[in-house]
Amino acid sequence: MTATDPRETVIRAALDEVADPEIPTISVIELGVIGGIRFEPAQGGGERLHVDLLPTFVGCPAIEIMREQVGERLRSLGVADEVEVRLSFEEPWTSDRISEEGREKLRGSGFAPPPHLRSLGPDELDLGGAAECPYCGSRNTTLDNAFGPTLCRAIYHCDACHQPFEQFKVL
User: Fold this and answer.
1) Is 169 strand, coil or helix?
2) Are the beta carbons of 150 and 130 closer than 8 angstroms?
3) Quick check: 47 and 39 in contact, CB under 8 A?
4) Fewest C-beta in 10 Å: which of 19, 45, 46, 145?
5) Is the separation of the CB atoms in 152 and 56 below 8 Å?
């Protein structure tokens, strides 16, 4: 499928309706976990749609749910005779794949998005640094626990507004 194939626009729009199972305010498109989208001939004729799903972490507990939801949504479109959603590590997911709209939605729901990896220096990659509070914007925050409810998040506390919050880890 070429970049100008109108089906890709339809597919991406449909997948933008598929919510992350752990944080339903952000879609799989906004989270950046959708990789390659391509069509090829199906074995029995017709076309097969392949979509690569990029896990945020190896062993992500939500990845199978995401794969099922993405597959169901794509099959409902009827753009291909067959749909295959494949976990792919060929193109690694990084936190920089989270869209700007996704970052705003995370902030709006009380999650601190990670800083852009490309903007950090080598000495800023540790988890001990201050995170920006999604509630008040303060950087007067403390890492409470590097191990949040999932592998991709850490728990912080804001010393300015006294709110706990989670931040996505920089990957």
Assistant:
1) coil
2) no
3) yes
4) 45
5) yes
- If you compute the radius of gyration of the chain from its CA atoms, what whole number of angstroms results? 18
**CA distance linking residue 78 with residue 70, whole number of Å:** 13
At 89, which amino acid appears? F
Give the separation between CA 89 and CA 104, rounded to whole angstroms: 27
DSSP state of 27: B
DSSP assignments along 69-95, one per residue = HHHHHHHHHTSSSEEEEEE--SS---G
Considering Cα of 50, then 53, then 59, then 64, what sign does the dihedral take?
negative
Entry field: residues in the chain:
171
Pair 95, 102: CB distance under 8 Å: no
Best CA proximity match to 23, nearest among 93, 97, 113: 113
Q: Are 156 and 165 in contact (CB under 8 A)?
A: yes
Span 32-83, pLDDT tens digits: 999 999 999 988 889 999 999 999 888 888 999 999 999 999 999 999 999 9
**pTM of the predicted protein model:** 0.84
